[in-house]
Amino acid sequence: MSQPPPPRTSSTIPPILQQTSRLDSPENPKITMSEEEIEVVQQGKGVIYKAGYRIPLIRLRFNDLCSDGSEVVFNSGLNLHDVLVDAVVGVLTALYTPENAPKNVRSVTFIVRSMDGVAYTTGMEIDDDHKEIHFSTDYIAGVHQRSHGKQDRQEILGVIRHEMVHCFQYNAFGGANGGLIEGIADWVRFKGGFIPPHWHRGEGDEWDNGYEKTAYFLLWLERQYGPETVPRINGWMKNRRYSDKLFIDLFGEEPCELFKKYKKWCEENQDEEDSAVICGAGGDESSPEEVSGEPSSQNGDDHSYVEVSRPHEDSSVSEVKLVARDRLCKLTYDGTGSFKRFLNSFEGLIEVLDSKMSDKERKLLLVTALRGNPLSWLDNIDPEDELEYSEMKVILEANTAVDS
Ligand SMILES: [Zn+2]
Q1: Within a domain: residue 317?
Q2: Same domain, 209 and 239
Q3: Do strands 53-55 and 57-62 pair parallel, antiparallel, or not at all (unpaired)?
Q4: What count of Cα atoms within 13 Å lies in the side-chain half-sphere of residue 24?
Q5: CB neighbourhood size of 138 (10 A)
Q6: Which residues contact 377 (CB under 8 A, 6 or more apart)?
Q7: Cβ within 8 Å of residue 76, ≥6 positions away
Q8: Region Disordered: what ranges (predicted)?
Q9: Judgement on whether residues 128 and 223 belong to the same structural domain of the protein
Q10: Between the N and C ends of the chain, which has fewer C-beta atoms within 10 Å?
């Protein structure tokens, strides 16, 4: 027989865990540490700071070193360590001060792999504070081919900067307007100076068309309301449920009214460039061509770019769908917690992926998400039988007594 495990004494618990202990009994007195002390402990664990901002653990993974896209990344001459650290600092500088920057992000993993679309960012299954940026080798190989290599660096840098924003921006508890979220990401990309040749000011017919269309609207707002404009929009979404009231709170007007003014301004100021804004506020302390330590031949020479022939809208649709697919793969219900919340997430993701999905496919996916559920009655549900999806939902809801 094996010996019983030794009693858990405080000496077996690392100091960093002791300080977060919630056990408040006399045997387990609450140990409090000041902010500085915690930082010292973390520095001892290898946490680094740059420009006053805490840099999370950064990891890099290539799923296939021999793919064409991996080769493009390597041959770009970019130092991925510097690029990723600069992206973190660039994003944090654009949206926060060292004092108010979020400290929850514990790691960012940059994963270079074959997949549809361009790139997407997601939290890991075990812990949303561990972020993953997935970057498509197929996409960058295509960019390389179409631009004869001239656009590789700018596109890698720009996509990384955009995705890094998703790791650190606030999103109103996940309910923010998607167009605004993507607009802020491209606004930060613009601030970094990674501006693709197909971006043009004044495009779009709604303020929340997303991506660069919303980014240019944010640049105009910044002109009107000052350099803190986008950090304030982002900050508003820290502790609030999303509504367009955001714009009334911050600027006193509905976003569609502001957008009308922006469009009018664009018509009247067609010659004025936004490049002046880049140097004005936020952005990276280093200019984009300095990021890799190698001068860029693309600077100031728009004609050296070859426009990506894939329409930008396609890639934006893909990113949302890729995130939804990733979330759906990770979504499970283990029999505890709110079943209704689980079902809301499930149906929301299906809606994004394919709103016209058949009942049979929905049932299959739902049963897959419920796999591993300890409740034995699940065995009685067969995705192939005649049960309608809606009937199946009713049975499931009736069987999940823990629902809140
Ligand atoms: Zn995005």
Answers
A1: no
A2: yes
A3: unpaired
A4: 2
A5: 15
A6: 399
A7: 152, 153, 156, 292
A8: 1-29, 278-313
A9: no
A10: N
Cα 239 to Cα 122, 220, 231, 233: the distances in Å are 20, 25, 14, 12
Angstrom distance (rounded) from CA 55 to CA 354:
37
Residue matched to tokens 């404009």 = 229
CA of 314 to the centre of ligand 1 (A): 13
Q: How remote is the CA of residue 378 from the centroid of ligand 1, in Å? A: 37
Give the closest residue to 322 by CA, choosing from 286, 349, 298.
Answer: 349
Distance of CA 178 from the midpoint of ligand 1 (Å): 9
Instruction: Give the residue numbers spanning the domain of 361.
Output: 323-399
- Do 233 and 266 belong to one domain? yes
Same domain, 280 and 185: yes
Distance of CA 69 to the CA centre of its chain: 22
- Exposure pattern of 302-332 as b/e (b: 16+ CB <10 Å)? eebbeebeeebeebbebbbbbbbbbbbeebe
Gap from CA of 182 to ligand 1 centroid (Å): 5
Q: Are residues 211 and 258 in the same domain?
A: yes
Calculate how far, in angstroms, residue 37's C-alpha sits from the geometric centre of ligand 1.
Answer: 36
Q: What is the pLDDT of residues 229-275, one digit of tens each?
A: 999 999 999 999 999 999 999 999 999 999 999 999 999 998 777 65
| Burial (0-12, 13-18, 19+ Cβ within 10 Å), 5 | exposed
Residue 360 maps to a domain = yes
Statement: residue 29 has pLDDT above 70? no
Residue 163 C-alpha to ligand 1 middle, in angstroms? 6
d(CA 211, ligand 1 centre) in Å: 7
Q: Is 61 in the same domain as 27?
A: no
Q: pTM of the entire structure?
A: 0.66
**Cα of 215 from ligand 1 centre, angstroms:** 12
CA of 186 to the centre of ligand 1 (A): 8
Q: Kindly give the distance from the C-alpha atom of residue 165 to the centroid of ligand 1, in angstroms, as a whole number.
A: 8
Cα 75 to averaged position of ligand 1 atoms, centre (Å): 25
Number of domains comprising the chain: 4
The answer to whether residue 2 sits within a structural domain is no
By C-alpha distance, which of 93, 240, 98, 136 is closest to 180? 240
Of 168, 186, 203, which closes a domain?
168
**Tens-place pLDDT, residues 34-59:** 554 444 444 555 668 999 999 999 99
Same domain, 35 and 58: no
**Residues with C-beta atoms within 5 A of ion ligand 1:** 182, 185
Nearest to 33 by CA among 47, 16, 48: 16
